[in-house]
Specification:
Blueprint (H helix, E strand, L loop, with lengths): L23 H11 L5 H29 L1 H28 L4 H5 L1 E7 L7 H15 L4 E4 L7 H12 L27 H19 L11 H19 L2 H6 L9 H7 L8 H8 L4 E5 L7 H13 L6 E7 L4 H6 L2 H4 L2 E7 L3 H13 L7 E2 L1 H15 L2 H18 L9 H9 L3 H8 L2 H8 L3 H9 L1 H33 L11 H10 L6 H10 L4 H15 L6 H18 L25 H14 L6 H20 L9 H4 E2 L2 H8 L3 H10 L2 H4 L18 H9 L5 E3 H12 L13 H17 L2 E3 L6 E4 L6
Parallel strand pairs: 1-4, 1-5, 2-3, 3-4, 6-7
Antiparallel strand pairs: 8-10, 9-10
Helix pairs in contact: 2-15, 2-17, 7-8, 16-17, 16-23, 16-30, 18-22, 21-22, 22-23, 22-25, 25-26, 26-28, 33-34, 33-35
Subunit structure: Component of ORC, a complex composed of at least 6 subunits: ORC1, ORC2, ORC3, ORC4, ORC5 and ORC6. ORC is regulated in a cell-cycle dependent manner. It is sequentially assembled at the exit from anaphase of mitosis and disassembled as cells enter S phase.
InterPro entries: ORC3, ORC3_ins, ORC3_N, ORC_WH_C
Family: Belongs to the ORC3 family.
Length: 779
């Protein structure tokens, strides 16, 4: 008899056997795609460079994720620990003095984590928090999402199953390797089952922590009993079928039940065994990631249900709030709000995280890949005005990296200095030709003497040495460039109005796009700096010196640091200088001016004003000298990277390509698809010789769209139909209305409906059997 034969008809599911994933297949597939076409050796090197570069970026970002939210996570983990300890101490005091503290037992410790509105980053934030809680506090954690909690029963099942070790928050690839709790059916996931399971868990841990006592009897009796306890816990709902419904009942009806249990505390709390049990208790942490998106009634009922069992189960809530903690109180009723004791924790804003990514990743000398001013401005605008998501910013950075390495074959030299030297030595003639064709290298060659030009174009050894030198100089220059960007930020961020911005990222965009000293913002900042007092200038000078102190290896920067130290000494010694003696005033010639010579009076007054120009004092002279020193350094070093030779190897600045991938343009895509279907379908039947022509094999909606472009503001549906039939079926007879093929008419109606859905036309009441056109200019 077959295994699937049954008396009654049914559907039998056969689970696919689990197979180990081939870890090499994705990498092999991407490598094959990368190396398609000519120059496979160059493409293989660019692929290796990309993989190495992205691994460094990923490592830096993982370290940043741990450090950015480390302080708030440490405080929150300490809060969860203290919540469990304070609860056990209160229970011991209440049981010792027989105090009935109903309110303290119903209050659930709640941490309100304000994460901000950057929704795509919340998954990474709560993932890091769960890992820290599992490592240091408790393994019993449940993560609830609003999209999975549409009913109270479903939310309770998710919560209880995760707390008991089933469907826990873990990587699905490692589910089989992690020990889980007892197998409980969906109908048996009730608070009574959770309560019995937790009591047995605490007893097992207490027995494990206590040393065995020497006795004459069998020493293995109690361990067997502890090993059988989970089976009893699992079977308890079957013996008492009414308990699950009672546990999942309405919290309002069972609100009086804690009064009886709390008025007579259990006997275990009075004994020493109860004290031992309370010491080894681990809290049950429930995380509501998006508490504002939860239905109000479900969140209200879950809080009341947990509060009814708070005397037996040490619940701790973690609310993920995107706006303000007041949103939690607005969404909850008074009785639910009275059951939780909220403490607020403020996570770092996403802009702070972005600043760390920019300073430690994009401005790092460890990374050979950099982005230009236009691309960086595009990524920053998407972040600030679209989603405030650092996760999406990193994905966009990875896209820029892929485009840079795939589109430019010269990027096989975009690697670390150690591996670059070996690659330069092993370059072939074809690879050298790739470098020689770069516009920046050609400009560099044109600026050299004729003898050197011939050597750079014909001698491979000289060319390799020059490439190695230029790339090393480019690395040194970018390190110096990033340091001076921070110096400019320290110099100008406290100015009124902040002409160059208040963040390093804004100064970086300006310096990457154009020469700093030629911008209007820098000229305005220069004027404001020329009016600063000594008390305002000295803190700025100290901040610039602290930035330069980290880059003592560079000769230019160390020279600038020495000059700033000397200027600081001269500024501080101004008080010790003797007061300048006023020079005797020279007698001025008497001016004889007639009453009618107004223009002559104006000219002579201007000449006298120039002669009487006030001489600068010692501080003003020092201030002007300081600004002059800084400006000389900025002129030579803060130039855009496009002026450096071989910048195409390390800098990516094609913003149009990134914009096409990241910023959707549905209107242009629709117009292209309707007017030229071959652009997307890539079929020969839709290929057009003339963009304005219409052929029979085009899709119906494209034919209808092109015909409607020939009409005016109002379109006659019958004339439109006749034109459609004449294109689709030229041999059809359109003179007789009754002879029109119904299939062609249905195809026409479908195409018109699709155009209306896309927003190109709309119905109108001005004329019968007419529609109004909504788009003009061929778009």
């Amino acid at each position: 008899m077959a295994a699937t034969v049954s008396v009654s008809k049914g559907v039998f599911a056969f689970k696919r056997p689990k197979t180990k994933k081939n870890e090499d297949s994705p990498e092999a597939t991407s490598l094959n795609y990368w190396t398609q076409g000519d120059n496979e050796d160059v493409k293989l090197l660019t692929y290796k460079s990309y993989v190495s570069c992205w691994q460094k970026v990923n490592k830096l970002i993982l370290n940043l994720q741990k450090s950015v939210h480390a302080k708030v996570f440490e405080d929150l983990v300490e809060f969860v620990k203290n919540a469990g300890e304070s609860r056990s101490q209160e229970e011991e005091i209440d049981s010792k003095f027989r105090i009935s503290s109903i309110k303290s037992q119903r209050d659930i410790p709640t941490a309100c984590l304000v994460t901000g509105v950057n929704m795509p980053d919340h998954e990474a934030i709560f993932g890091s928090l769960v890992r820290m809680l599992k490592d240091g506090v408790t393994p019993h954690i449940a993560q609830l999402h609003s999209r999975n909690c549409t009913t109270v029963r479903g939310a309770a099942f998710k919560m209880i199953s995760q707390l008991m070790g089933q469907n826990s928050v873990m990587d699905p690839d490692f589910v089989d390797e992690v020990a889980s709790g007892p197998s409980v059916k969906r109908a048996q996931c009730t608070m009574s089952v959770l309560n019995a399971w937790y009591k047995d868990l605490v007893e097992d841990k207490t027995l494990e922590s206590t040393p065995p006592r020497p006795s004459k009897g069998s020493p293995q009796k109690s361990p067997r009993k502890s090993m059988q306890s989970p089976q009893k816990t699992t079977a308890s709902p079957r013996k008492n079928p009414g308990s699950p419904r009672k546990g999942m009942g309405s919290p309002r009806k069972s609100a009086s039940s804690p009064l009886k249990s709390e008025s007579s505390p259990p006997k275990k709390m009075k004994t020493n065994c109860g004290a031992a049990v309370s010491r080894v208790q681990q809290p049950l942490v429930i995380i509501f990631e998006d508490v504002e998106s939860f239905p109000t009634n479900i969140l209200h009922d879950l809080i009341l249900i947990c509060s009814e069992h708070c005397s037996e189960l040490p619940f701790v809530f973690v609310f993920g709030v995107a706006t303000t903690p007041a949103a939690v109180h607005r969404s909850l009723s008074q009785d639910a709000s009275a059951c939780i004791a909220i403490e607020t924790f403020q996570a770092q804003p996403s802009t702070h995280y972005l600043n760390q990514v920019i300073e430690q990743v994009l401005m790092s000398e460890k990374l050979p890949f950099h982005i230009g001013g236009r691309t960086f401005k595009l990524l920053l605008d998407i972040f600030l005005y679209h989603d405030l998501s650092v996760k999406n910013f990193i994905k966009a950075l990875q896209l820029c990296m892929i485009e840079h390495f795939m589109a430019n074959p010269a990027t096989f030299l975009c690697c670390t200095a150690s591996s670059r030297s070996s690659r330069v030595k092993n370059m072939t003639s074809s690879q050298l030709d790739i470098i020689r064709k770069l516009p920046s290298f050609r400009s560099y060659v044109e600026g050299r003497p004729p003898k050197e030009q011939a050597a750079l174009l014909l001698d491979e050894k000289v060319t390799k040495e020059t490439i190695q030198t230029l790339l090393s100089d480019l690395d040194t220059w970018y390190k110096r460039f990033c340091c001076l960007v921070k110096v400019v930020h320290a110099l100008t961020n406290s100015l009124p109005g902040s002409p160059l911005g208040r963040h390093v990222r804004e100064v970086l965009i300006t310096c990457l796009s154009q020469s700093l000293v030629e911008t209007e913002e820098y000229k305005q900042a220069q004027k404001l700096l020329g009016l600063m007092a000594r008390e305002e200038l000295l803190p700025i000078l100290r901040e610039m010196m602290s930035v330069l102190q980290e880059y003592n290896e560079d000769e230019e920067l160390s020279s600038l640091y020495d000059k700033l130290v000397l200027m600081m000494v001269r500024f501080t010694s101004l008080d010790q200088l003797p007061e300048s003696v006023e020079e005797p005033k020279e007698e001025e010639d008497a001016i004889s001016i007639q009453a009618s010579d107004r223009f002559q009076l104006k000219e002579k007054l201007q000449e006298l004003a120039k002669k009487k120009a006030k001489k600068p004092n010692a501080f003003e002279s020092l201030r002007a000298e300081l600004l002059h020193i800084l400006e000389d350094v900025f002129i030579t070093q803060l130039q855009p990277p496009v002026k450096r030779p071989l910048h195409e190897i390390q800098f990516f600045d094609c913003s149009s390509t990134v914009k096409r991938h990241l910023i959707g343009m549905p209107r242009a895509a629709l117009t292209t698809a309707l007017s030229n279907p071959h652009h997307y379908l890539q079929c020969n039947c839709c290929k057009l010789d003339d963009p304005t022509s219409i052929i029979t094999t085009m899709p119906d909606v494209s034919v209808v769209y092109k015909l409607h472009l020939e009409c005016g503001r109002l379109i006659n549906l019958y004339d439109w139909l006749q034109a459609f039939i004449s294109v689709v079926d030229p041999e059809a007879d359109t003179s007789n209305k009754k002879a029109i093929d119904q299939k062609l008419q249905a195809r026409f109606v479908q195409g018109v409906s699709e155009l209306q859905f896309l927003g190109f036309i709309k119905p109108t009441r001005r004329k019968t059997d007419h529609v109004a056109r909504l788009t003009w200019g061929g778009c």
